[in-house]
From TrEMBL, chains A, B:
Pfam families: CBS (PF00571), MgtE (PF01769), MgtE_N (PF03448)
PANTHER family named among the record's database cross-references: MAGNESIUM TRANSPORTER MGTE
Gene that encodes it: mgtE
Subunit details: Homodimer.
Entry protein name: Magnesium transporter MgtE
The organism of origin for this protein: Thermaerobacter composti
SUPFAM superfamilies in the record: CBS-domain pair, MgtE membrane domain-like, MgtE N-terminal domain-like
NCBIfam families per UniProt: mgtE
Amino acid sequence: MQAAEQARDIATILQGEGERAALQRLVRLQPFDRAEVLARLEPAERLRLVRAMPTPLAAETLEYLEPELQYRILDHLDEPLAAALLQAMSSDTVVDLLLALHPLQAARLKAWLPPAYRERIDTLMTFPEDTAGSLATIEYIAAREGWTVQQALDHVRKVGHDAEVVSYVYVVDARGRLVRVASLRELILADPRAPLADVGRADVIAVRATAAREEAARLLTRYDFVALPVVDDQNRLLGIITVDDIIDVIHREATEDIQRLGGSVPLAESYFKTPVPVLFRKRVGWLLTLFVAGAYTSTVLRHFEDLLSRVVGLTFFIPLLIGTGGNTGSQTVSTLVRALAVGEVAFRDLGRVLAREVATGALLGAAMAVAAYIRALTLGVGPQLGPVVAVTALFIVVWASMVAAILPLLLHRLRVDPAVVSGPFISTLVDGTGLFLYFTVARVMLHLP
Amino acid sequence: MQAAEQARDIATILQGEGERAALQRLVRLQPFDRAEVLARLEPAERLRLVRAMPTPLAAETLEYLEPELQYRILDHLDEPLAAALLQAMSSDTVVDLLLALHPLQAARLKAWLPPAYRERIDTLMTFPEDTAGSLATIEYIAAREGWTVQQALDHVRKVGHDAEVVSYVYVVDARGRLVRVASLRELILADPRAPLADVGRADVIAVRATAAREEAARLLTRYDFVALPVVDDQNRLLGIITVDDIIDVIHREATEDIQRLGGSVPLAESYFKTPVPVLFRKRVGWLLTLFVAGAYTSTVLRHFEDLLSRVVGLTFFIPLLIGTGGNTGSQTVSTLVRALAVGEVAFRDLGRVLAREVATGALLGAAMAVAAYIRALTLGVGPQLGPVVAVTALFIVVWASMVAAILPLLLHRLRVDPAVVSGPFISTLVDGTGLFLYFTVARVMLHLP
């Protein structure tokens, strides 16, 4: 059933039979779906249901709502209930909520949290949005060096209700440094009397809180964990990043690369949340840059004005030839930018990449030369233009392949995101140089001055 | 330390001190890193180490190698060891290995597996590569309806060694139908004497084996699970998909979308594994299609031949104006194709999307009109061309925004992957229509026939 229908049904039950009946229906849904229903209800209905829900269930549901809606709900509840809900929510959600609010509103919510919790939240809030630290949650299970397996399992039973992921137990020393990790599976399968030091592994894969969030995604993708510990410079455990947050990062990174490849600065928000003036600002910079870079096409054309007025037919093939060059470049660039992003290709592969792209370009160029020759014939512009257009097509395609092979690798080497070499960028580069190629070929083949 | 250095070190230890010492070093690495080292060793060294490893460790390591290398190792081991290794590997890896081999080789390996296991593997092998079923592994933990929590936990202790993910226990009825799911956390926190029917939830989110793998990714992303059950048409449990495989799917889908948006058919393999003739084949189709679609630019130019020979200056701005149109279209298309892929936008939003893109296009068009006017002035082509070029820039940008807003949504509605509306595709569409706009504006504003 769709969320909209669910919401209508539940609103009807709420009006007819009251909270208990509506809740019975709501409880059966997954947290994500429950949140979708809540978001669609009237504010008063929403508050009635949240008040009637058991706190853990309400907290779990609230986590899937947008920060504004979370705040609107918390703001309208009695303080004790709101405080209990906030404390029951996972800390990474609380951090996101606090960062999204006005400082005064955030301060009011923070006052509801116990001092120790507030302190740890404050630490997490210092990490910028694109770092691993910003994704961390403090709801992990830590055990102390020197415990037995049984002690660790008892601890899991005690604190496991609050933990976001109980797949791993992180062992820390007296100074809070991460020294060991054991999976819950290993703990359950181990002898309960064994020392914790005999279970799991000592060289823990962890990510620094200040590392880029992509680094966390790379580690988790590589090692197939469901959570990754986050440490500070002294290897002290600050929190964990759960795999669901990493999945969101992977989606977001792909979105950003696609938007960059399309020739736009990535949007910070989802499409409909981005107002038109912001869409304009994200796009106009590159559009103007490309316009200025492309302006020399006019210079090239002007330079060959004489040739163009002698052989007017040459003009007819300008968009087709430079378009083909741009298309070839776009194909190569998008493939290589992605290969760089997932680590399949690096700068040291430049020679191999160039050889492959030039070979592919030569094959494609030959095919396009035939197509261009046929087009010249069918347009009926006289027999001498066909060979000129065909040879130019071959040259332009090979040239575009070369430029598109070298540039992304070079930028990656210079630590510039290669996704800025968008399709539009390559097309623009190839436009002017392609025209120069075209008219030079024409001059030589038509024996013109 | 890099894998190459690790491999050199371990080879040295192997030659100097023997397998035991080398193994002590190797065991400390994560499975992924261990596999990287193995892949870099000489075949004879590799086999010595695999023979010396405990079977579960060797199996876990082999899972991270490519199918060809897996086969080369298994093929050189004594049959009992090879058979034990194959059985200890996770079933989704075994399926991928068997599908990658020559049928005769695959049959030889399959003969090593117990009949019951072979049967289940055969079922999984029937699902095509792009389905959820192809990602499933049979190493899950199933419990029977009617058990107590204690019985379920005892079962986990007994079979947990072989399971790939022990985060969930799936409850099936006498006919193998999936009726309930409980997380290991819920089991550990529950009263051991409680019936299993009281723990976890009855409405299980599962994916059909025949569903697209993107559907599995969507469900797992939405509900934040670490594993997703896979069922047949009768809701019988066939296997589970683990979150690490879903992460690979998300990466692969993003790669495909990026390659499509660049105007190429997606590559089936990674970049360097794709031979040049395949790169050529994946690209030439779209390149020729775009060439044919773009061929009408020549017709348009020919149609306006008279105008062009009267006002030669018009030619100078052709690449710049149609390039700007293509760039605008590419920005819009990439943003919208991604928004469609992640479900932020759907066909029913067409009106809103169009309004937003036309508004953004009008702002961008105004900016580009100013830029175009300045360019006309600096090129010194006479005062009458500036206004023509400026007005055309405005029109072309708005027009490109409209086309790029409508097409992806329309294709998504028609169940064609909107990523085929690549940047090159939009550029090509806008090229010809943009020229028509340009010359029409010129005729009207210059009062020419």
